[in-house]
Write a structure and sequence with these properties.
about 290 residues, mainly alpha, MetI-like fold, globular
Amino acid sequence: MASVSGPLGGLAFEEALSEISSTPQRRQRRLRFRPWRAIVMTLAGAYFLLPIYGGLKFSLEDLNGHFSFEAIQNLPSAPGFADAFWLSMRLAIATLVVSTLLMVPTTIYVHLRLPRMRRVMEFITILPIVIPPIVIIAGVLPAAPLWAKSSPYLLSFLYVILVMPFIYRSLDAGLSAIDLKTLVEASRSLGGNWLRTMTSVILPNLRAALLSAMVLTLALVLGEFTMASLDLWTTIPVWITQFNTSPNGHIQVAASMLGLVGTWLFLTIIVSIDRSESRRSRRKAGTL
């Protein structure tokens, strides 16, 4: 090992030695247990998990209070549940397709060609949060033609308005995290047209943002009650409030808990797929 001579060399060696010796102490400070964090996490977990636990416990009980899957087993055969579930899924798929085809090209175009319009877009997309859904449906129903009011897909176009703030902000965050202009210019210089650039260059980099927007869209559509009720269509939330065959309410709570758990499982699957794709991409990049 080469020796370090001179006052400057000795000073540099001592500084390096102190830096190395202080690294475990810094790690220890970072990993030090903080009681207030545990208290906050415990309170937050209790706030979110206790109601879910109460709902699951109630839905897994019979009339005598004993553990039973009777409510869940009777749910598929409950009158009107299959039709309400199928209607909600059709509305969710239609809303997802229309909102994606509308918002993805618009957000990309604003980021790429009209960056000064981003503040205007933020203001426009925040309006569905400010305006209550009951105001929107009360204004649309009298003005909508009869053929539109006779179709449940009128709700899908209204749901596109409701999910617009969440989809735009998910896509905006995803586009802000990449160098969009450089990617587009590189693709165009290599001979790719706009469709090829969109499908092969931009959308793969927006995978996480698109998945987040998808989850938010499905969660909002499957849980929306006001518009569907005023438009006289029986979706899952409307069916839960109107189902009166079971006086004890176990089936209604079971339907609510299945929707909540199903959304959570769907979100977990999407996040797992996104993480596996990211790891695979990092491995490929590491082998190059």
